[in-house]
Request: fold
Amino acid sequence: MTERKSQLAANLARVEERISSACAAAGRKREEVTLIVVTKTYPASDVRLLADLGVRHVAENKDQDAAPKAAACADLPLTWHFVGQLQTNKVRSVAGYAHVVQSVDRPKLVTALSAAAGRAGRELGCLIQVALDAESGAEGVRGGAAPDRIGELARLVAEAPGLRLDGLMTVAPLAGPYAGRERAAFEQLMELSSRLRAAHPTATMVSAGMSGDLEQAVAAGATHVRVGTAVLGDRPRLG
Ligand SMILES: *Cc1c(COP(=O)(O)O)cnc(C)c1O
Reply:
């Protein structure tokens, strides 16, 4: 093994241990939680090593980096998640490689994704990104729709050709009533998820938890955790 590969293997083993312990503590089965490795800012060569180490889900947040990386890794058995704020002019590109878009937060994006999925002849999974710090009706600072917008967005996605409503995603808020209260934030997301599932029973994905708070997300009931730095190392600070 190269030095980088052993480093990634060791990091993955530590993250795996954290997820297993969190599942055990919550009385959940390990298979109930899927690890998504966030490979943003890291090269395609790392994605290749991760695939070799058994990773099957990766995530990116910027189309300009993700598109060439996904193209360079097209031979690998990977599911690509897009988790960043998405401009409608990037949607056509994203629809070419992403299997799941986790950051759906406004009606215009639903329309654009549906058109792009149709053109690409692909079905795109969609998660509605919830901003638990958004004022009623507003968009969150890091993207995301206010909780009272979920119902409308879910209906639009469910009715849009080429799109599949898979569930909800959130990032623990840094401001507002949930700042510093990750567990409470993720429990609120679970509550919103059960309401969503009452109307859309197949929208079962709950994507929450990152390197710093995956235990709280697993405890609350998340089905997917998105882990970057704990697997790949600290990212160089961008801008
Ligand atoms: C970067 C990122 C992550 C991973 O964060 P880490 O702290 O590196 O684990 C998860 N979700 C989203 C939306 C991200 O942008």
